[in-house]
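>> received
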Amino acid sequence: MAEYKEILDNLHKKIEKADPSKMKGVSAVYQFDLSGDNGGVFHVAVEDGKPTVVESAHDNPNITITMAADDFNDLLEGKLNATSAFMAGKLKVKGDMSLAMKLQSLVS
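>> returned
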């Protein structure tokens, strides 16, 4: 079970390794609402494909992703597939579904 700070550290590492060309042209705010003991709310602001993690809620995100903190960490570590998590109800999306598909290239 990863602590909230560890989860954010894992996300930063994933973003640093991601291929920037896969997010080229994307400008959006992805909000994450992680539940559970190690949960919290943060958002990733993507400006022309360049993501920045901000440790607070956003007033008007383009998309909100809700899931358990442990499941999100498993997703980052490659132990959980995003599509499978969505189909199983472990990952909920509110907003533009096409943005969710683009996010997969950033975190997987």
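>> The longest strand covers residues 28-35.
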